């Protein structure tokens, strides 16, 4: 049992998703400007149900992509080595967001 987000964006434990979100928050400098609507939705969304619209999924992908160099650097100090590196996890999330947006479908959390 765990979290499954459609379009292959995420599949794993709730605690792993929480660590991923925390890493994204840290990579963003510990604050998300109001203009970063995609990252805000990613960080504030329920982690066990609901949807992220195709428009916000596309925004999240674009905004998270800007953080990849920092997430890759953070992975060198990643404590939970049995999980994907933060940058790799972000790339999978970004691909899932883009697929959902291209298909005009929401990301679904189950």
Global morphology: globular
What is the averaged pLDDT score? 93
Beta percentage is 5-15%
Quickly count the domains.
Answer: 1
- Gap between N and C termini, in Å? 10 Å
Structure commentary:
The chain has 110 residues and is mostly helical. The protein has one domain. It has helices spanning 14-27, 37-44, 54-65, 68-75, 86-102, and strands at 3-5, 10-12, 50-52, 107-109. The chain has a two-stranded antiparallel sheet. The model has no long low-confidence stretch (mean pLDDT 93).
Short description:
With 110 residues, the chain is mainly alpha-helical. The chain is built from five helices and four strands. It has a two-stranded antiparallel ribbon. Strands 3-4 form a two-stranded antiparallel sheet.
Topology, please?
Blueprint: E1 3-5, E2 10-12, H1 14-27, H2 37-44, E3 50-52, H3 54-65, H4 68-75, H5 86-102, E4 107-109
Antiparallel strand pairs: 1-2, 3-4
Helix pairs in contact: 2-3, 3-5, 4-5
Keywords:
single chain, 110 residues, mainly alpha, two-stranded antiparallel sheet, 54% helix, 11% strand
């Amino acid at each position: 049992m765990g979290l499954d987000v459609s379009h292959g964006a995420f599949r794993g434990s709730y605690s792993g998703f929480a660590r991923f979100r925390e890493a994204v928050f840290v990579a963003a400098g510990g604050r998300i400007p109001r203009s970063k609507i995609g990252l805000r939705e990613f960080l504030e969304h329920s982690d066990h149900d609901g949807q992220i619209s195709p428009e916000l999924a596309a925004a999240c992908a674009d905004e998270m992509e800007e953080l990849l160099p920092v997430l890759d650097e953070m992975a060198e100090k990643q404590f939970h080595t049995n999980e994907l590196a933060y940058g790799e996890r972000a790339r999978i999330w970004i691909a899932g967001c883009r697929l959902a947006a291209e298909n005009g479908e929401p990301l679904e959390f189950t």
